[in-house]
Amino acid sequence: MGMLEELNGRSEGALPGLIGLEVVGVEEGRISSRLRLREELLAPNGYLHAATVVALADTSCGYGTFVGLPEGATGFTTIELKSNFLGTAREGTIGCEARLVHGGRNTQVWDATVTGPEKAIALFRCTQMILYPR
Question: Rounded CA gap, 119 and 49, in Å?
């Protein structure tokens, strides 16, 4: 099984699988993903729910962290995240490009851009704390 299939398999039975996130590209320090919008992922006002965007971006960054865990690490956890919303979408597919900005032994910082059909709709940054056995 390749890394792309492994990451998509990790989504099954968890939030990323529930919302329909699909990883479409994997390389060291970079993850590409997409999400087909449907009514359940929108806010009651009919526009894209902010939590949908954050789930796509944070999962993409998390999968990138998983792929690039330092030797001896057992996992990671998100310790900070921030999102700036620039626009929205109501239908179609949104995409995410997550990129490693800092890959240290104890933390990783990732940036992600979420795009709609025509433009960027969110800029996202998170810090991941790398976990080691005690």
Answer: 17
